[in-house]
Amino acid sequence: MRSLERAIDVLEVLDASRHALRLSDIARRAELPVATTQRILNVLEARGRVERDATGYRPGVGLIFGAHAYLTSSPLLAAARPVLQDLAAETGLTASLFKRIGWSRVVLARVDGARPLRYELPIGERLPLHLGAGKALVANMGPEELQQFLAQLSDLTRADGTTIDHDEFLSDLKQIRDLGYSQARNEREPGMASVAAPVAESDGTTTSAVQVSGPQDDIPPDRVPNLGVEVQRAAYAIARRAF
């Protein structure tokens, strides 16, 4: 099991990097001996999960097989796709599904609205939890987990350049819990706004969220409460089908 954990640690280091990494960099980030890291990389490269060139190591094409298997077999995604289509059609906004992985969230599905987003939001993109739809998931953390999450945050700057105040953030989380949905403006992408709601699983945990997003002009403040109701309905419909 320890060997498996180490291999996953190496893959996560590569996954988190936007460019190829040298052997020594991977070993340092994974907190592993260089010799151990080399052996792991050799096996992963032979299986197509890692690729190597003159600049270093990067994730390999073989990882796509696992991603495709998840996308085609996940009950959550099967339940979410028709709901997202209806949500995008009814609101005219881009509807997306996110799932929490550790201290990040990942885009699992997306249906474009009447006006496609001005920026790329590819499936599988890793996004922060403390901005945008991620707040709908952070708001449902327990007190101890929330403190751990806040302790590891390093970048507290929004897209508009403002800094997130600790007390203001905690107040925002309380409001999200009270309302059942989150809202964001200029937090992750300039000029964009979003409204999101958590998807409750059968045991009460919330590791996924549904969101509508678009230009700020399409989501004026007076529209937010109605959109809050829409995303909560969508979240409930997904949970009922998936869990």
In words, what does this structure look like?
The protein has 243 residues and is of the alpha+beta class. The protein folds into two domains: 2-62, Winged helix-like DNA-binding domain superfamily/Winged helix DNA-binding domain (Arc Repressor Mutant, subunit A, Orthogonal Bundle), CATH 1.10.10; 74-242, 2-Layer Sandwich (Beta-Lactamase). The protein is 46% helix and 19% strand. Helix 1 packs across helix 2, helix 2 crosses helix 3 and helix 5 packs antiparallel against helix 9 (224-242). The longest helix is centred in the C-terminal third of the chain and has 19 residues, at 224-242. It is globular. The two termini are 30 Å apart.
Reading off the top of the CATH hierarchy, the class of the largest domain is best stated as: Alpha Beta
Radius of gyration: 19 Å
- Tally the beta strands: 8
Uncertain runs with pLDDT below 50, 5 residues or more? none
Biggest sheet architecture: 6 strands, antiparallel
In percent, how much strand structure appears in the residues? 15-25%
CATH topology assignment of the largest domain: Beta-Lactamase
* Topology pattern, helix = H, strand = E: HHHEEHHEEEHHHEEEH
- The whole-number mean of residue pLDDT values reads 91
CATH architecture label of the largest domain:
2-Layer Sandwich
Strand-pairing-aware structural class:
alpha+beta
Domain count: the total is: 2
